[in-house]
Amino acid sequence: MSIDAKLAAVDLNDKHLEDGQRTPQAEGATCPVTGLTSSGKTCPFASVGSPENLQEVDEEALRKDINARMVYLKDFVNFTRHDEDAIRHVGPLINDLIPEVVDALYSKLFEFDITKQVFMQRNDGFDGPIPTKLDDLTLDSAQLVYRKVFMKNWCRRLLSSDFSSPKTFTWMDKVGVMHTGVKSFKHRTHVSPLHVPYRDCALTLGWVGTVLQTATLQLPEDKLSMKEKIDSVGAINKILWIQNDLFARHYIDE
Ligand code: HEM
Bridge partners of 195? Predict the structure, then answer.
């Protein structure tokens, strides 16, 4: 089935899209790497297609239509209802760690002048004092405290969003765009554009992934079984790579 045909079959008002977005050959396919089949959902690679079922992808639609992109991304990384459930399950269990994760993330960004200096710019909606010298900007500066609220929101939304909804992908896409100097959010139209190199966004996503996945693996067995941990780590990895694409596509001239 072509991506266009799949898109036509997607009811965008339906909150819970089925795995019909996946390749038709996904169920029961054998993974060439592990030899496992997807029927028991044991192998994350098992939806590998076959030459007979080659999908047609409209690259123009991938560039212009976020819904087409969403279908392709989910299909490619094999992000299914099973992954959504895994994220929904682990989200509340690691939610309380988010303030700590965000504090540690900003400490990381403050380790290097090139990532720290981005925070010298006045943030949208912040009208408190801003230091004039990089050395004077500290992690407890008023603007940084304000800034962390947004990052905590992103983490929370990442762990609790409805990944069947195109709205979620539109939001994730806007998060990517806004770092390229283009104003994507209505509430940011009056502020100066933000420019963060893709390099640092991708590194940050990788950093967040390690922290969230480690926190998941460290949960006690009575809260999350080993099987659930494996599912959650895989699902977190997939959604972070999807978010990565929704950054990268705005930097890379495909
Ligand atoms: C995992 C990668 C990243 C994610 C998911 C992310 C997410 C976000 C979000 C959700 C916002 C607020 C959007 C809003 O206004 O509603 C934001 C703003 C911002 N981000 Fe990022 N960000 C990332 C990486 C970075 C990096 C690496 C830097 C700098 C080195 C950075 C600097 C900023 C700044 C300065 C703002 C505030 C702009 C303003 O309010 O004027 N971000 N980011």
Answer: 180
